[in-house]
Amino acid sequence: MQALSFRRQMFLLLAERMNQERSIQALYHILTGKKSSQTIQDIKWYNVTYYFRMFPYWKETDFEKDTNELQYLRYIASDNNRVMITEQGRSQNDNFRMFYRWPPVFNGWLYGKNAAVFWKRTALLVQCLSQTLAGNRRFLPVFEDISVQHWLKKNWPKTIEEKQQTAFILFNDLRNLLDELDERDAFLFMNRLTGYHLTGLTWTQLSNRLQMSEDECYFRFLGSVHFLLEHADRSAVLHQAASDLVFRDVLTETTKKTLRYMNEGWGMERIARVRNLKMSTIEDHVVEIASEQNNFPIGDYVEKEDQNLILHHASALQTKRLKVLKEAAQPKQLDYFSIRLTLAFYGREDHGQA
């Protein structure tokens, strides 16, 4: 059995989780973090938020080469535009899972782009404290992001004593938190930092040091950042770096506009007319909202009897395919919107899977 690159292996694991019900392109959107109603629906239905935005830099041309190679090696096949994992692919996944040690935290869906902001703030703070306390006031900041520099100026310790205390606290907090991680993950985080007479290592350098692909280095580094974010309340300095970042602002911008109208009591048809959008687009928005809100009034859209019927067939048939569920519900005439909405509402992370 041929060894796979880390990216190809992650794709293969995701393909197995999607139960042969989605297209190769749909999986690409999950792994790169495309924030659309369809992708949000997919990651909730199939409980694959862990894979969201795992490789935001994966170019579509490279992705096509990788998936073509997986098909050539007979790990996956394609049927009616749906990616199907073969027995050989399942065996590969079983072998990988048997030996691979996952990071304790990775949540691209929850932390998304804010993880990058948190990392930049922390890294710039470390660099500036290190340089300043060493008496060096002339250095190039590791990040030129204006918003990050503005945050640092706003939170910069004023006296030398405060700088020393902040550095002492941050050093000890990072050491204590990173001690809870795999040694490689802690190494990745610490060696990406820049300080006085110390330059953070590149991904290529880290890859060579750890004998690990750059893709896996990035993934595990990001996992360490997510871990620190999840436990930021255990450190006054890290809590400050994360305090104004919103981690549950997950709705797309166009869906937020629809939600504002819904909160004012507008019906779907009126919203579609005023916003000059197709009814199917507004339905997408409502499904997205239902997947996030635990107080969503699903009973206003789908009768309880129909909800139970949909959930029963989804569980019995082990599928989220709309056409299959619609046919299974016969002679009951259920529309696709009712099925999608029910699956979205009951597929929320705080509700458990359908």
TrEMBL record:
InterPro entries tied to this protein: Helicase_HTH, YpbB-like
Family matches, as Pfam families: HTH_40 (PF14493)
Helicase Helix-turn-helix domain sequence ranges: 254-343
Record's protein name: Uncharacterized protein YpbB
Organism classification: Bacteria, Bacillati, Bacillota, Bacilli, Bacillales
